[in-house]
Write a structure and sequence with these properties.
Blueprint (H helix, E strand, L loop, with lengths): L14 E3 L5 E8 L5 E7 L8 E5 L1 E5 L3 E8 L6 E9 L2 E6 L2 E3 L10 E3 L12 H4 L3 E4 L1 H4 L28 H6 L1 H7 L3 E4 L3 E2 L10 E5 L6 H13 L3 E6 L9 H9 L18 E2 L2 E2 L3 E2 L2 E5 L6 H18 L3 E4 L7 H14 L4 E4 L16 E4 H11 L6 H14 L2 H4 L3 E3 L8 H4 L4 H13 L3 E5 L27 H16 L2 H4 L1 E7 L6 E7 L2 E8 L5 E6 L6 E2 L8 E2 L2 E6 L3 E8 L1
Keywords: Glycosidase, Hydrolase
Protein name: Alpha-glycosidase
GO molecular function: hydrolase activity, hydrolyzing O-glycosyl compounds
């Protein structure tokens, strides 16, 4: 065995409390190198009476490694443990003290999980585990109140530019809640709605005021209330990394320089605060001088922003925050932010915009979730671009799954497109069959799925600002077949809990073959999903020792004969099979 590939760490995603009774242990080994891994666990104060051996399941494989997992349910919420690894006649033990050929005497040198403290558990809102989100840019969704239209408004449906406004507002969202209810979504995420000079509103001027072209606080209250009446949660977007240059505190800095009482609210490198040769003398979002970066370590700045977060939850009963450019704000601020938000509403959902590995924000003391752009990259690279084979895709997805504990994976914010990326149908080259495969994967994968407004009726668009086109409300111009498909898949996910929280595992993912099979397995149900991301008709086969499978969408029996199940698939086709346990 390649012992240098063994890895375990008694923390984070390698050893964590899933709930108050269950700890998950994970071990890494070289791919296809170890035949069997066993967790040997016991109570450190009475090993003789309370110990057991737990076979570990190989739950994932990436390009280099296999990942094994076992559940431990310690009687007294604490235990010590080591791992026994075997390949053929060779057996070794992995301990905190190193690798040895014989089992060491308990418990010196053993790993330890000292105690399961409820306050230390990763605790995301239960509702988020079963939610289906819908992202809305208010300016582009629907114009419900022409009396508050901005001046110089573009014609609805015109090609969007970086400056164009179209008059969408909160009343427009309220007017179209039937669309959301019929589609089956259970949560909406609105891009910023606070006072701002831009169409996207990511440069806030007044955090305590709804932009006058969107409505007012009473309208937001009404929208949240009506959404709640329909079982729809509402999450708002907050920009605490930076403001607009028109933010009153920054304007004071421009006028009074170092003498301003707000001088420390920002990161001014040299005074006066100005833009020289295209580069600001103060820190900004990117290199945009009109978006000065806030100093969230400043106590007064921090209190102001935390009061904003608290105010809108208590005042309008929103259900959480999506946090823009979250990775550029300090961790101390986010820890305080979580405390304030959870005190205001314990089941509020906190989603950070972090585009990369996000473990440091997902330890239970900051965010509940992050926008899972790495998921979108891998899924669209496979289904839309068709540039990789099944094995490479499975390796990439398994690597993502192993980044985080299971509880985190159950609420991570999965998306295929957003206001910052090309629309999914455009990414798929207009091929609706490719789009459908990506959506099937989204809706049958672990995590919290999100749909970008208009994707469900076939909107297209490239990079920003093209992806931010106006919603089409004329049904004759909508792709109603695609809408019905989204509705069908959302309904399937909502009906079966195993698609939300069951174990995910690839059953077939081979090199030089794009066809894949994966499973979702949980209490009482077992799903398999068969996919053919190629332009050729095909028959997929997999060993199956039961004959009680049915098509989850049609109810038709899917037979298995002589221990093998064969499934015919059209070009870019799929089937979702289900059996009861």
């Amino acid at each position: 065995m390649f012992q240098e590939c063994f890895h375990h760490s008694p923390r984070s995603n390698w050893a964590y409390a899933y709930d108050m009774e269950t700890i998950h242990l994970r071990v890494q080994t070289k791919r296809d190198d170890v035949e069997e891994v066993t967790a040997v666990a016991g109570d450190k104060y009475d090993w003789g009476s309370f110990n057991e051996e737990l076979p570990m399941l190989k739950i994932a494989t990436d390009h280099f490694f296999d990942y094994w997992e076992a559940e431990v349910k310690p009687k007294y919420k604490r235990f010590s443990y080591i791992f026994r690894l075997r390949q053929g006649d060779e057996t070794v033990y992995l301990t905190e003290g190193g690798i040895c050929g014989d089992q060491p005497q308990p418990v010196a040198g053993y790993y330890e999980f000292p105690y399961i403290h409820e306050i230390d558990l990763f605790s995301a809102p239960e509702w988020a585990k079963s939610a289906v989100f819908y992202q809305i840019m208010p300016d582009r969704f629907a114009n419900g109140d022409p009396s508050i239209n901005p001046e110089g408004m573009a014609e609805w449906g015109a090609a969007p530019t970086g400056e164009s406004c179209f008059g969408g507002d909160l009343q427009g969202i309220l007017d179209h809640l039937d669309h959301l209810t019929d589609l089956g979504v259970t949560a909406v995420y609105l891009t910023p709605i606070f006072k701002s000079p831009s169409n996207h509103k990511y440069d806030t001027v007044d955090y305590m005021k709804i932009d006058e072209h969107f409505g007012d606080k009473d309208m937001l209250k009404k929208l949240v209330h009506e959404c709640h009446e329909r079982g729809i949660r509402v999450v708002l977007d907050a920009v605490f990394n930076h403001t607009s240059e028109n933010f009153p505190a920054f304007q004071d800095v421009l006028r009074n320089g170092e003498q301003s009482e707000y001088a420390d609210w920002f990161h001014v490198r040299t005074f006066p605060a100005e833009v020289k040769d295209g580069i600001a003398t103060y820190d900004t979002f990117g290199f945009f001088g009109q978006m000065p970066k806030l100093n969230t370590a400043n106590p007064k700045t921090k209190k102001y922003l935390l009061d904003v977060a608290d105010y809108w939850i208590r005042e309008t009963n929103i259900d959480g925050w999506r946090l823009d450019v979250a990775n550029e704000v300090d961790h101390h601020f986010w820890r305080a932010f979580r405390q304030v938000v959870k005190e205001a509403k314990p089941d509020a959902y906190i989603v950070g915009e972090v585009w990369n590995d996000s473990r440091t924000w997902l330890l239970g003391d900051q965010f509940d979730s992050v926008m899972n752009y790495p998921f979108a990259d891998r899924v669209l690279g496979f289904f839309a671009d068709g540039m990789i084979d099944g094995r490479t895709f499975s390796e990439g997805m398994n690597n993502l799954l192993m980044r985080y504990p299971q509880g985190t994976n159950e609420v991570i914010f999965n998306l295929l497109s957003s206001h910052d990326t090309p629309r999914v149908l455009t990414r798929a080259g207009g091929n609706k069959l490719k789009l459908k495969l990506a959506v099937v994967f989204l809706m049958t994968y672990i995590g919290t799925p999100c749909i970008f407004y208009g994707d469900e009726i076939g909107l297209q668009g490239g990079n920003d600002p093209d992806c931010r086109g106006c919603m089409i409300w004329d049904e004759e111009r909508q792709d109603r077949e695609l809408y019905d498909f989204y509705k069908l898949l959302i309904g399937l996910r909502k009906e079966h809990s195993v698609l939300r929280s069951g174990r995910f595992r690839f059953l077939k993912a081979d090199p030089e073959d794009a066809r894949i099979i994966y499973e979702r397995l949980g209490e009482g149900e077992h799903f398999t999903v068969w996919m053919n991301p190629t332009g050729d008709r095909t028959v997929l086969e997999h060993a199956m020792n039961t004959n009680d499978w049915h098509d989850a969408l049609t109810g038709d029996h899917a037979p298995a004969e002589n221990g093998v199940q064969k499934v015919e698939l059209d070009p870019w086709g799929y089937r979702i099979l289900r059996r009861e346990l």
